[in-house]
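Morning!

As promised:
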Amino acid sequence: MSLYDVIVVGAGPGGCTAATYLAMKGHKVLIIEKDTYPKFKIGESLLPFSMEVFKETGFYDVLSSGKYIQKNGAYFFDSVTSENIYFDFADNGNAEFPHAYEVPRTEFDKDLLAYAQTKGVEVKQPEEFVGCEMNTAGVIVTTNKGTYRGKYIVDASGRGSCVTHKFQTKIKHAAYINNFAVYAHFEGVDRSYLKSEGDISVGILKNQAWSWAIPFKGAVTSVGIVSTKDFVVEMNESESFFDKRVADNPFFAHIMRGTKRVGPFMISSNFSYASEQFCGERWGSVGDAMSFLDPVFSSGVHVSLMSAKYLSQNIDYSLRNGEIGLNDPANVNKFEELMKTGVNRFHHLLQIFYSGDFINKVRKIEKNPNMHSAMVAAVSGGMWRDTNSLMRYGVL
Ligand SMILES: Cc1cc2nc3c(=O)[nH]c(=O)nc-3n(C[C@H](O)[C@H](O)[C@H](O)COP(=O)(O)OP(=O)(O)OC[C@H]3O[C@@H](n4cnc5c(N)ncnc54)[C@H](O)[C@@H]3O)c2cc1C
């Protein structure tokens, strides 16, 4: 049985990025992914501050090669009050990160995994993690096809948190944003109102619902509606639920007029939770396996990438310093503390959104001239920047 420095479970953005960082530091890394790619996943709109991670790993060259549409801003419209606001990412005060990209995940995850392999990451796919045991020397991982030994394990398995669950870390759900989403891909969604073609639109709809429209390169746009559990729908009701929400909201109905659905409706539910612990002695979790927030600010992939970056720094330090625990106080990078800080700031932004009248609240905050770029930076994912005025004044 060969020994890996790190075994990563899951080849989403979190797993691929953690593996890439670690392989670039010279460590022997294995990714175990249960599904074959390409695979449909949700989480298609990236944030500008994620570009920092991609520039560090080098994946930015793939992302910016012309295959993916550039996202220059986020347009929020309120179907109830008819107000709208545009967050132009060029105003986020960080000239290095003035835009992001919209990415069909079938392509994006495949590209990320292929890129990790170019950096020396070994991949077992399709192969399913079924369990692991830890001892003082490391971790023994069992899959449906074999057994592997590692010094550390990274849970990047997404919302199933398959490794973290084995250690019985409690998962909490934030009840007040316990929503569900219905979504599909469409052709012909109107883009003429957008400042630039790749901008995301978020619609604040009646009955505590909101919508997204994420344009991809070419004709396809991802469109989804998020609603409270009071309106739970079964799979066979998703189309009528979706159509009714579109019809009830004039601007949304306008951009959806004459569209053609090109994929099945999908449903996701039970989002918003955090593990009590983000890492232990021999394990750490990243991305959705660690924490997940309501997706209105497209924070999911960004949190996955930032956790991959900071956890891989912890692991690298541990490997170079006598294999100390990832949660050892001597570990210079306080992974869990860092992650909780950023995630909590997103949480506060969500509280502002869900407490209603979001657009006017933003306008009020932005009356202070320092706050405009701070607000755009927050919406761009700059939650780990202590220089942001919103954070210094305790708004986030
Ligand atoms: C409705 C909705 C809309 C969203 N919109 C956005 C958005 O616009 N922008 C954004 O940034 N985020 C969005 N998200 C969040 C985004 O989907 C996730 O945060 C992101 O995909 C998490 O990445 P990850 O790498 O942590 O996990 P994942 O991408 O889920 O990857 C986990 C991988 O682990 C594998 N795996 C699972 N179990 C095992 C096992 N036992 N053995 C081996 N492999 C395993 C899975 O097959 C999968 O490939 C949205 C989420 C929802 C629900």
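DSSP finds twelve helices and 20 strands in the chain.

Hope this helps with the figure draft.
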